[in-house]
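Two folds, back to back.
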Amino acid sequence: MKRVGVIGLGDMGIGIADNLLKNGFQVCGFDLSTERLEAFEKLGGKPAKDATEVARESDTVFVMVLNGNQVEQVVFGSDGLIHELNGGDTVVVTATITPTEVRSLVSRLTEKGVEIIDTPVSGGKSGADGGTLKLMAAAKKDVLEDNRAVLDAVSAQIFHVGEEIGQGQTVKAALQALMGTCFAAVFEALVLGSSAGVPGKTLYEVFSASAAWSPLFENCGKLVLDRKFKGTGSHIGTMHKDMGITMQMSRETGAAMFATASSYELFQAAKSMFPDDDNWAIVKFLEQICGAKTEW
């Protein structure tokens, strides 16, 4: 059985590590937070002092950090994975970064015979905790199959989106355009009804019975109407960062993103006012404009 490493033990990484442990894998992990390392050790994992130590103890390493700069540092920094990775080892980039950033890792890893799987995830904290993430995996078929058991331990579905590294991040960027725009539409629709005096319960029931219903609406609508704006595992800063990647890719490809661009600006405005809140805090921003309160 493969030895597995996890770099980044935040809300997503700790769930990934926990499910690997539950599936019988030996797991070594690292995070800059002492508190996170202690929580990981209580789950049964082996904490490391840096990424280099994780590489020494692992055959496959998940990298679940915030952005491309952090991925670069984790893999190629002075205490990075590269110093102890061996031929045949695999780096699994589950962080959401730009296609260009993940492609920049390939040649330097290949020089050491190290494989890479470009596989951002969908499912949020609940998916990470429950081992039900959806993986958008770009990798050579044999590399994917060699790591199938490891990936199955943390996911409900693995979509092999191509063999070219960068395609995983490209699919995720497109997905986040859809997610962010849908979120914005839900927030605006609920606030519109509330501003005219319609109870949130009525709006929720009607929307749920219409063709606009979706699991996204069901979850999002309940959180908004319950006014749960923090601690839900969907931080506004993360979504704002992801949609920024989407907009960057649109500029590079020339794709027009009218609705996504407006949604991105909405996330940016709300993030500046509620930087510690989750996505649903956008409702508070919209409420301030019209003086409404959106609740059951």
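---
second:
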Amino acid sequence: MTVTPSRLAQVFSCIGHAFMHMFTAMYFVIAVAMEKEGWNGMRNADLMELWTLGALMVGLAAVPAGVLGDRWSLSGMMVVYFLGLGASAIVCALVDGPSALFIGLSALGVLAAIYHPVGIAWLVRSSGKRGKALGINGVFGSIGVSVAGLVAGGLTELFSWRAAFLVPGVVCFAVGLALLYCRQRGLVNDAAAPQKQPDSVPKRSEAIRVYFILLCTMTCMGLIFQATQAAIPKHFDLRLGDIVGHDAFLLGVAVAFVYTAGGIMQILGGVFADRMNLKRLYVATFFFQIPVMMGLAFVGGVGLLPIAAVTVLLSTGALPAENMMLARYTPAQHRGLAYGLKFVLAFGTAPLAIQAAVWVERTTGEFQWLFAGLTALAAIAAFTAALLPGGKDRASSSQVNAVPAE
């Protein structure tokens, strides 16, 4: 099989997607281990708070990162992404105090922000068969979340929490060096693949209506996903202690199980989006999230695992329908901006979600009321999504089948 610049771009983009989600998810498992070790006398809630600025920058830095990619080089920015993300993780592994860890985590957030506006744009530009390439890329993102718990938990148990930062950081930095070599040798570039026929342009009034509705639902979805991701490791530690034995690796396995299910559902969500009415599918994901989120709030023991898995299934299963609707109502020349703003919402909600998780844990000692609040958000999102226009989904979806998932 011939190794072309297009294929190499797809390989590095997929690896980058996995790294982005792994590095932004694994700290919540590491924080549990640091609390048990008694690092600087800090509790889990205090440690989670150190990630607040980094989580904010994952959203806010996405737009300037995309602008730099457009004006300079997408492949060059990906080199910066791999080298910078790896270096930031290495710094986090070597710190001695909370202030230094705060700086390292904040830098990690800034570098992680590069991926979605740059890596996805690079993949889209360099791919001929965009639908297939983006589908595979979406799975790698889910894999990144899935393995975060395993990597962090496994390295913590084998060595220490510092190794959970250090080893992935060194690997990420090495990938950056490999991409730098390929770029300097001309093995990868920013060349664009031939464009498909343009999509039809919707009415302006209808597009504005859809944007406002999706603004609300994407914010709710971002809060639900980010708060759940922040709370799940400690929630499992509290309610599955008799099962995982407060073992960091087993805790990581439990978290990995939940998010692996999400990766599978993203593929199924794409299949359903091609065959079903997008509005109905989108509303259904939020509607069913209501009872499932309530179960997450009140159920304990082994039954908590499948409930948590279904919560992630619904969150990730909604993404293909959401992305296809956003593409349908956005002119092709403005889709980069539209997706950039989407990722700002998706990741920019993380600080608020983390602060909510921190406040609830400090106040109550666990997360029952956090998930009760997320139940209300799911209800708001379901009601708002029901206001979306209907449309001839299958015909339209065939035109926008090359839409990136997160």
